[in-house]
Write a structure and sequence with these properties.
Layout lengths: L11 H9 L22 H22 L2 E5 L2 E3 L5 E4 L2 E4 L5 E4 L3 E4 L3 H11 L13 E20 L9 E20 L5 H13 L11 E10 L2 E6 L22 H20 L14 E2 L2 E5 L3 E2 L4 E2 L7 E8 L3 H8 L5 E2 L11 E8 L1 H10 L5 E4 L12 H10 L15 H11 L3 E7 L20 H9 L4 H13 L2 H11 L7 H12 L6 H11 L6 H9 L2 H4 L1 H8 L4 H10 L2 H10 L20
Parallel strand pairs: 15-17
Antiparallel strand pairs: 1-4, 2-3, 3-6, 4-5, 7-8, 7-9, 9-10, 11-16, 12-19, 13-14, 15-18, 17-19
Helix pairs in contact: 7-14, 11-13, 12-14, 13-14, 13-17, 15-18
Length: 607
């Protein structure tokens, strides 16, 4: 017989021998009809054929893993008793494909009808009273259904049999079902949400759901009104079940991402209706993801205490470039979540970094203002009370507190570093935190961080001298002489940076440094932030292209660079079109006598 697939075909006798030797396992649910010429076909043969391919597709879906493939997002409708579900598709745990081809709006006023349908489908775990005016937590899910339709005439199967009418098609469909999950009084619905999040993402002990249903969202209902809709507590992307391939017992990556998304959504809702007082995570959450946002109001810049994390958590402020936050969050998601139900003693090994973001171009300036102290310990308010401190917390508090003798005739000493931290925190409405690994720590060496120039100093000096004429080099020497030891290396790197290859920008940078007088590391960082920002120098490059004499006459370039509005001119020319650049360049009178060049005709007056 010719085989109908690429599988190895054996005879029935060989199959019986393998069965007797216990070497053959038959797949009873994967049996298909064998067709041959002369065979009488019955409806059961074609039905078995359909069942075979449906079983194969179900096996492929289970191999992929149940969950949502795309779409199927749920949100509260414009009416307090409505839910809206977006189109999309996914797979149930039983391997069935469920889909919605259009957006669906379901009214919770029909809860009794929905419960009756759920009872008929067998999705209720226990029988309860009708859902009219019920209050509690429910799971909105999608289940695969099919029904027959489109009647056609059926010919008689016997010579004297009557003709009949049978429904000719089987239509596949998906139905929304609402399953009761947890009882909760109206005043306890908000706290129930935090408990369910801990069960879902920490202990992974949520009640089982029917395998035939794809869960889409958890809905808290009081009467016929929706209190909250949480999609990410039960919604999972397809493929999550097989993501822990190493078998270490970690929560699957998609589940950790769902925890972060669920927490972010709930936090945004809380902040939208936040009242007075300092926010506390334990009031609304039972567990926090390993990384996520937190309200900046939880930090007190006066005494640098935080109210978001429990007292046992070791929290530190950390200054980071804002473009590195996604990478830090990505790395922290490998760590377990923060269980807020643990005691302070159990939280001793939990370390958290509270990230204070700044633009990358401003990082050097802010680090100089902080005297390179890019981390600062913060404590929970309870740790300020001696009776509630653990011994380790007392050591941390002593290490982060500067003791001073209070004299009645002298104002209390204010640490300038703390002033800068307070300024940075006041500019933030939302911060990010990341859980940190527990590594062995060593005491930092006290002292001052001094930057040194890597490479050959002669090469660096050659680059600087090639950019300035003799008169400007004398100014460079005076600027270097006015810098302290800590800032001299940073100053040399700035003057030799590739960004200052433009003569005008190099002269403008030198003029800005001269205006500082005695130069510190913070002054160098402030000037570097201005001249190395993206886009700076593009307008001056267009001016040099329009006025070639600036490229060949360093004295003329120095005269133009001495104007304190040169960077403003750079910004204006960078945003202008070619016609405006030509016009503005022609209006600059480079032949003006004296040290500076007046740009009043080119730039608008200062407000």
């Amino acid at each position: 017989m010719t085989p109908t697939s690429n599988r190895t075909f054996i005879s029935l006798e060989s199959a019986l021998q393998l069965r007797q030797a216990n070497l053959l396992v038959e797949e009873s649910h994967r049996v298909r009809p064998r067709y041959f010429d002369g065979k009488f076909l019955a409806a059961r043969d074609l039905t078995r054929d359909q069942a075979y391919f449906l079983a194969r597709q179900s096996g492929f879906a289970r191999a992929l893993g149940s969950g949502v493939v795309e779409g199927l997002m749920v949100r509260a409708g414009t009416v307090a008793s409505d839910l809206e579900v977006e189109p999309g598709f996914g797979y149930t745990s039983a391997g069935e494909l469920v889909s919605l081809s259009r957006s669906v709006r379901v009214s919770l006023a029909q809860l009794f009808r929905l419960q009756t349908l759920a009872a008929q489908l067998g999705t209720l775990r226990r029988v309860g009273p009708p859902l009219r005016n019920r209050t509690g937590v429910f799971v909105l899910g999608l289940r695969a259904l099919e029904f027959s339709a489109n009647p056609v005439a059926a010919y008689p199967t016997t010579l004297d049999g009557p003709r009949q009418v049978e429904e000719g098609d089987i239509v596949e469909a998906s139905a929304l079902t609402l399953t009761h999950w947890v009882d909760a009084p109206p005043e306890g619905l908000e706290s129930q949400r935090g408990s369910l999040a801990r069960d879902a993402f920490v202990t992974q002990s949520l009640p089982d759901l029917p395998a035939e249903m794809l869960p889409l969202a958890i809905v808290a209902i009081a009467g016929d009104n929706i209190r909250w809709v949480d999609v990410h507590l039960v919604r999972r992307a397809a493929g999550q079940a097989h993501s822990d391939v190493l078998g270490f017992g970690f929560a699957p990556r998609l589940q950790r991402e769902a925890h972060l998304t669920q927490y972010t959504q709930q936090l945004a809702e809380l902040m939208a209706r936040a009242g007075a007082g300092r926010p506390n995570a334990a009031q609304h959450f039972s567990a926090l993801p390993a990384a996520g946002p937190m309200p900046a109001a939880a930090l007190n810049p006066q005494d640098f205490s935080q109210s978001w994390f429990p007292p046992g958590v070791n929290a530190e402020l950390m200054l980071v470039p804002e473009d590195e936050i996604p990478a830090l969050v990505e790395e922290s998601l490998l760590l377990p979540p923060i269980d807020l139900s643990l005691s302070a003693a159990q939280q001793e090994s939990t370390a958290v970094a509270i990230l204070v973001p700044v633009p990358r171009e401003a990082l050097a300036r802010q680090a100089a203002r902080l005297q390179q102290q890019l981390q600062r310990a913060v404590a929970a308010p309870a740790l300020r009370l001696a009776a509630k401190r653990l011994p380790l917390d007392t050591i941390r508090l002593l290490a982060s507190t500067r003791l001073s003798i209070a004299l009645p005739t002298r104002a209390p000493t204010v640490d300038p570093v703390d002033v800068v931290w307070a300024e940075l925190l006041s500019a933030q409405a939302l911060l990010w935190y990341t859980r940190r690994r527990n590594l062995s720590l060593r005491p930092e060496i006290e002292g001052t961080v001094v930057a040194v120039v890597a490479g050959d100093d002669n090469d660096l000096e050659e680059v600087v001298r090639s950019r300035f004429d003799a008169a400007s080099l004398e100014r460079v020497d005076r600027v270097l002489a006015s810098a302290n030891v800590a800032s001299r290396a940073e100053l040399s790197k700035l003057l030799a940076s590739p960004k200052l290859a433009s003569p005008l920008l190099a002269e403008a940078t030198l003029a800005a440094l001269e205006d500082k007088g005695s130069i510190s590391s913070a002054d160098v960082a402030e000037v570097a932030e201005k001249v190395t920002a993206p886009g700076v120098g593009e307008g001056l490059a267009r001016l040099v292209e329009a006025r070639p004499e600036l490229r060949t006459d360093p004295a003329l370039a120095a005269k133009l660079a001495s104007n304190n509005r040169l960077l403003e001119l750079d910004r204006t020319l960078g945003q202008a079109n070619s016609f405006e650049v030509a016009r503005l360049s022609s209006e600059i009178n480079l032949a003006t006598r004296g040290r500076g060049i007046n740009l009043a005709r080119v730039l608008p007056p200062k407000p």
